[in-house]
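Box 3.1 — From sequence to structure: Endonuclease/exonuclease/phosphatase family protein
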Amino acid sequence: MTDSTATQPILTVLTVNIHKGFTVFNRKFMLPELRDAVRKVGADVVFLQEVLGTHEDHGSRFAGWPEAPHYEFLADEIWPQYAYGRNVVGPKSHHGNAIMSKFPIIHDRNHDVSVAGPEKRGLLHCVLRVPGQPIDVHVVCAHLGLAEAHRQQQLALLCEMIRNEVPENAPLIVAGDFNDWRRRANDVLWKGAGLKEVFVDAYGEPARTFPSRLPLLCLDRIYVRNASVHLPVVLPRRPWSHLSDHAPLAAEIHL
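Predicted structure (token representation):
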């Protein structure tokens, strides 16, 4: 009898809200240190929220400010494939979600799920071609709104997008900052898209991630469909608690 799991592709994922590369209250620019920390995790696919695409003024004000967009600076030579979804656009800057991948990204699309008002939110959907995996892997980087009513609408749009764009048999990973401190997203995503939250599945409750120095709220999530997860973890406070106000989540995904 052979062990079928021995031949199953495995990929590691990381999700973190990087707060535009600044510490809490924008006191210090930490993107170079954050890049080092992300590299040490060694994830195959990285889901990033609040990533600056450009800011015309900051380059002259902060030491270590990269010339390239922040997602390119973070990807560097480690993640040859990346996609960026611009959500918030100002007079001199824009930021949004990004996905960095060691595997080819054969398709990407950013979905605007903003609800009327000042908050702009998006869902970045990418399709990955993973060696040894006969069906392409779909990944979605999410950043949902602060208001409960907005989140409910955005969760419905996420479920609709999955039904329209993701084959029922395809491996699917959805990760990011859901701002779901009331813990209402899990039932919606299970009923509407068949998604399981990996920490709830492994430990019975979602991970506490915010604020990173003393996590109390379960804002960040990793969901999967047609995949299993081994030992999801909240990454240690050192060095992460001074790199972002959100604690990162990592997991090993078995396809």
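Summary of the box: The longest strand covers residues 45-55.
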